[in-house]
Amino acid sequence: MTETATHTTTAFTPPTRFAVPGRIEVAGEVAARWQPATLTEIRRETPRASTFRLAVPGWAGHLPGQHLMLRLTAEDGYTAQRHYSLASAPDDSGHVELTLDHVADGEVSGWFHRVARPGDRVEVRGPLSGFFAWPGDRPALLLGAGSGVVPLMSMVRHHRARRLSVPLRMLVSARGPEDLIYARELGPETTPVFTRTAPAGTPVGRLAAAHLAPLLSEPPAGGWEAYVCGSNSFAEHASRLLVAAGQPVDRIRIERFG
Amino acid sequence: MNTTRGFTGRARTARPGLPPGQYDAGDDWPVLSAEVTPDLTPADWTFRVGGLVAEPRTWDWADAHRMPASAYEGDIHCVTGWSKFGVRFAGVSLDAFLAAAGPLPSATHAVAYAHTGYTANLPLADLTGGRAWIVWEYDGRPLTPEHGGPARLVVPHLYFWKSVKWVAGLELLDHDEPGFWERNGYHPRGNPFEEQRYSGD
Ligand SMILES: Cc1cc2nc3c(=O)[nH]c(=O)nc-3n(C[C@H](O)[C@H](O)[C@H](O)COP(=O)(O)OP(=O)(O)OC[C@H]3O[C@@H](n4cnc5c(N)ncnc54)[C@H](O)[C@@H]3O)c2cc1C
């Protein structure tokens, strides 16, 4: 007899159904295993952010929006581990790309920005979390700030690589044009919002209701699935704007980098 | 061992009580929640204990504040890697709520759920014996909305995703039923000292 057959109670459903159910099932065995990864390329994106390309021979594949856990090990066995979003779209190259901000005194990002060079080996486990994943099915409204654009860029790249026709729009907030990660790659789907300095003719200011109004007053058929990523203060600000503009709370997914 | 060339890491502080793979976040208290912070006032808040109990009970804000006060002072550990030392939460021990509802002998697990519908599963043994609280104060002040105010569950000996924010209730069951993160690849129990982060750990 299976274990479930012996249960005397039926599955419990809370009175409020969880606003935002996970998008995909996550394979536990894959996430549990640490795998070697070799750095193959480093590309500078902005003065403070670079992209690191890793060869991961055992990579099980991911969906845009997922992240991995990365571990560095010192000679004496001391380890440091951090989460990083996958920047690359899913493909069969056996590689993944991460984009890291250089955090002042950061233990892990500091190693990547100051020490790392192609050929270096680290360890990763993942992909993790099915909650922020975007399988490319529903219209996607992406709101990011700073390195919060990383998992969203995976979605934009996936949308392009697969020539998806489902609507996708991205709003990214950066301090100025020089801090805009992936600037060269952004297309008509993206509206940058500059908070400190902007090119002539572009207003300076925070993400505001006016940015969202045109998108939310005429949502695509089936409505937007909103993905918000960045610092906690950006996530709070952006998610409140979305709710105020009429986006249902159960269609807002938030990834906070802490 | 797969050592990383040129990586030395921070000075080894060897802080007692720091679980494996965690770092001391100091004064920071990062916020991690997957949903929009709800507009929930104390007047809207209720807490229910139901399922396999002698008598399902619901408390509102005033009822809950008439329960015997109890505080937790100690450490908390988040699965994303930070730990926070010497935090102070004040509220009521979960034992008091459970005693009022009377768990049936068949109850072995619970699903804790939020006013947003977020869920986390826990063995009943992790919620009893002075190890879990419903709290509304942090460091002597009302708990802020982004940290789960007006009231949240605190189960400090497990990773903090189990400490359901905006807590609405506890459903007692005779089996384990995965909650939100547990269905998204996280470990069913989440003991930081055994580094039970993901399913399979
Ligand atoms: C799901 C998720 C996805 C993420 N994705 C990305 C991403 O795509 N790109 C990205 O850049 N980041 C991402 N992050 C953030 C990332 O995980 C790290 O937090 C970030 O890189 C900083 O790590 P670090 O080791 O460099 O800095 P840390 O060493 O952790 O330091 C962070 C800050 O805390 C201070 N600090 C921490 N511990 C100590 C200590 N013991 N002593 C003194 N000071 C201390 C540091 O001075 C610094 O200001 C993500 C986080 C999450 C949760």
Automatic annotation (TrEMBL), chain A:
Coiled-coil spans in chain: none
Highest taxon of source: Bacteria
PROSITE patterns xref list: FAD_FR
Name of this chain's protein: Ferredoxin reductase
Ranges of residues in domain FAD-binding FR-type: 32-134
Swiss-Prot/TrEMBL keywords: 2Fe-2S, Iron, Iron-sulfur, Metal-binding
Cofactors: FAD
From TrEMBL, chain B:
Record's compositionally biased regions (Low complexity): 1-15
InterPro entries: OxRdtase_Mopterin-bd_dom (IPR000572), OxRdtase_Mopterin-bd_sf (IPR036374)
A Pfam family: Oxidored_molyb
Positions of the UniProt region annotated as Disordered: 1-24
Domain of life: Bacteria
Organism classification: Bacteria, Bacillati, Actinomycetota, Actinomycetes, Kitasatosporales
Gene3D superfamilies referenced in this protein's UniProt entry, alphabetically: Oxidoreductase, molybdopterin-binding domain
Start and end residues of each Oxidoreductase molybdopterin-binding domain: 37-181
Name the record gives this protein: Sulfite oxidase-like oxidoreductase
